[in-house]
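Hi Y.,

Following your request, here is the sequence exactly as I used it, all 717 residues.
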Amino acid sequence: MSKRRIPSTVWAFIAFVPWIAYWVLAGAGRVLPGAIAAFTGALGLNLYRLRTGNPKLMDGVTLAFFALHILFTGVLGSKLFLTYGGVLVYLALALMAWGSLAARTPFTYQYARDDWPREYWHHPLFRRTNEIITLIWAVIFTLGMVLNAAALVWPAHKIILATVIPHILLIPGVLLSLYFPRWFPRYALARAIERRDRPFGWRPPRFPQEPPAASDEFDVIVIGAGMGGLTAAALLAKRGLKALVVEQAHYVGGFCAHFRRLHRRYTFDIGVHDISGLGPRGPVRHLLRELGIESRLEFVRMPHEYILGDLRLRVPEDADAFVEELAARFPAEGDSLRAFFAEMRHIYREMYTDDGRPNIPTDPEVMLRYPLTYPHLSRWMDHSYLGMLDAYFADEDLKRLLRMLTAYQTDRPETLTVMQMAPIFGYYFDGGFYPKGGSGRLPQAIAEAFQTYGGTLLLRRRVEQVLVKDGTAYGVRLADGRTFRARVVLSNADPGVTFRELVGLEHLPQDYAALVQALQPTVSIFAVFLALDYNPPIAPITMYRAPDGTGMGFAIPSQVDPSLAPPGHHVMTLMTLVPQPEAATWDRTAPDYKARKAALADRLVRQAESLLPGLRDHIVTRDAATPATVTRYTGHPAGAIYGSVHPGGHLPHQTPIRNLYLVGASTQGGGVEAVVISGRWIADLLIPGGAREAYPSRDRRATYPFPLRKMGRISRP
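Below is the corresponding structure, written out as C-alpha cells. Let me know if you'd prefer a different format.
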C-alpha cells in the first residue's frame, strides 16, 4: 500500500462521525441540534473533499440528508424527521449503498482507492472486494431501517429495536471493512491460480527417483513432435525424466520444417518463415540456452515490408525509427504513435522474466503485487487489441496497418487480447529471425538435444489410442499394435482429434465433451512455392494487399540465407489465408483437386504480378500446398494452422482425464514463440523450477530410427 497520513479506514470512520453525533444528541432528546451538528460536520468534510479534488458519495449523502432534516424540522416545523427519524436515517444510508452498487461505484471503493496505488483501481478483484463490503453495509443499513420501522409498530421495544440491535449490527460491518480486504483478495487469487493451473482439480503425479526400467515404460509420452511437444519433451528429458515422443510424420517440427525441390537445389519452408522470441529475454532464446544448443544455430534477421495501396513501407530494424517513419506518414497521430509503442514495449518486456519464462504469478502474494510490479501488462492484458488501437488512434489506415501482424495469430483480429498480441510486437522490438539452413533446423536441433538427454523419438508412428482407465491416462497404443505406458501423456495433436479419436468422448464429462464438440478449426492457408532465377525487389517478408483487395504474404528467405537456392536464384513463397468453411471443402481425393489447386496457384501468381510484373517468366519450378496438404502432414482438421478453439477461446493445458495434458497452439495461440511458451509451461508444471538434481542422471540412449539429416525430405503436397 502507498503511505498516507490518514488511512481509508480512518476516513470511513470520520465519514460516520456526523451520524454518530446526530445519534448521540438525538438520543438525548436534542434532535434539531443533532441535525445542525451533523450538517456542520458534513459541510466541513465536503469542503475539504472539494479542495483536495477527492469527493465522496457518503459525504454528499450525509450533507443532503441533514440539510433536508434542518429544512423540514427547523424551518417548516414538520414532524416527519422527529417521528420517522430512525427509519429515514437508515433509508438514506441503504439507498446510498444500494444505489452505489447499481451504479457500479460501491461507496467503500471510493475510500479504498485512497489506500491503494492507482494501478489497482481498475483491477476486477479490487472492485469485487469493495462490492462485497458495500453489499454487506447495504444489508446492515436495510436491516436498520426495518428494525426502526418495527420500533414504530412496537414502541415498547423501541430501545432494543431502534438503538441496541442496529448499533450491534454496525460491529460486523466495521470488522468486515477492516479485515476482509486483507483476507479476501489472497483467497480469491489462490483460487484463481488453482483454477488456472488445475481447472479439473487433480495435481501432477510425483515421479520416482529412478526411471521406469522396462523398455515400454516412460515417465512422459508426448503425442506429436510439433514445436510445443518437442519443447516440453526436451526440457523434461534434460530435467531427468524418461520421455518418449511419437510422431506420425517423417520429420519433426510440425509447421516449423522445410523441404527441398528440383534435385534438392531449392529449400522451402512449410509454414514458419521468421521466428520471434529470440531477443535477450525471449523464450525461444532461453530454451536454446537451457538445452545447450544456442551455438548450433545461426539466426539472421528477416526485414519486413508493407505494401498497402499507396502506402509502401520498409520496417526499420529499430522500433523507434519505425515509429518515426509512421509519424512522418501519419503526422496527426505522431504523439499517439510514440505513446502507443512505448506502452507496447513496456507490456512486451513485462511478459517475460529474465530467464525467458512467461511472467505468470505462481502464488497469491506475487499476484497481489502484480499491478505494481508489472503495471503496463496488468492494465492492458485482458483488453481487446483492437480496442487498444481505438483508444490511441483515429486514423483508420493507420489502424489497418497496425493490424497487419494479427495474421500471425488469427484471421479474426477482433478476438485477440493485448496480451495475446504483445508477443507479436517482438518482431518490431527484437526482430523476427530465420535459422540458416531452413526453418526445420530449429526443431531438428531441439530433437537432437532431446536425444542427447536420453529421450526416445519415434517417427512415422501413429498413436491410435490414448489408454484410459478409471478416468486416468496411463499410456498409448500405436497403429502397429505396440503399447507404451507412462505416468503422464502430453498431446501435441489437435484437441478435437485427441478427444474424438484418441481418447473417446465416452471418457469425458458431459460438459467437456460438449466443449470438444463445439471446437472449431482456425483459419487455414494456401501457399505457392516458387523457385526463381532472379531476386524480387521486395523485402524477405512482405505483406501486400492486391488491387482486388486480396491480402497476400511473400517470404523470400534466400535473400538472407543464400544457401537455400543456387547462386543468382531465390526461393519465394506466396501465401493467402483461407477462412473456414472454405478450407473444409479441400479434399485430396476429389476428382478436381489437382485442377483446383493449379487454378488457385495461377491466380495467386497473377495477383503477385500486380506487384512484380513478369514474375512468371522467372519461375524455374512451382509447387503448392492447400488446406488438405496441411491436414495431411499435421492431422489438423480442415487444415487449421492455429489449431482448434472453442467459442470462449483456447483450451487449458489440463484436461478432465487425469495425467493427460494438452500442449501447443490450441492452448496458447499460434506461432513458434507461443507454442514454446506452452511447452515450457508444461515442463515447469511437472518439474517445478526445472530442478534436474531431483532426478539422478540416467544413462540411457535414445531410439531414433530415422537420421535427422534425412528429415528435410517431404513428398509433394
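The first strand starts at residue 217 and ends at 223.

Thanks again,
Q.
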